[in-house]
Amino acid sequence: MKPVKKDPNSFTALLPDSARQQIQDRALTSLESFRNNLEMNGNNIVEQAKTLQKYKIEWHKKIALALACLVLFMIGAPLGSIIRKGGWEHL
């Protein structure tokens, strides 16, 4: 840390050196704690975004599977009714 210049008109000039050092240490500790909280919150937001993206993908997969079943039924039902009974022998 840089030593603080003693300006006779400043607030810090009124404080003893030990109190000034204590205040600086507390301020640095508070800033470090605040920075760590910001990093943790940023990481949480990133993880929540990833989780949300996974849920969206799964939701689209479920919808796509249901629609695929309906489309294949619409195609397969008419084709199944056209084929003659009896299998391969009657072709």
Structural topology:
Layout: H1 17-82
Description:
By secondary structure, the chain is mostly helical. It has one domain (18-82). 73% of the residues lie in helices and 0% in strands. It has one helix spanning 17-82.
List keywords for this structure.
91 residues; mainly alpha; 73% helix
Biggest sheet character? none
Number of helical regions: 1
Overall structural domain count: 1
Residues in helices, as a percent range: over 70%
Which sequence of SSEs, written as H and E, runs from N to C?
A: H
Mean pLDDT: 85
Cα radius of gyration in angstroms = 36 Å
Structural class: mainly alpha
Strand fraction band?
under 5%
- DSSP, total strands: 0
Shape: rod-shaped
Uncertain parts: none
Ends: how far apart?
95 Å
Brief characterization of the structure:
With 91 residues, the protein is mainly α. The chain has one helix and no strands.
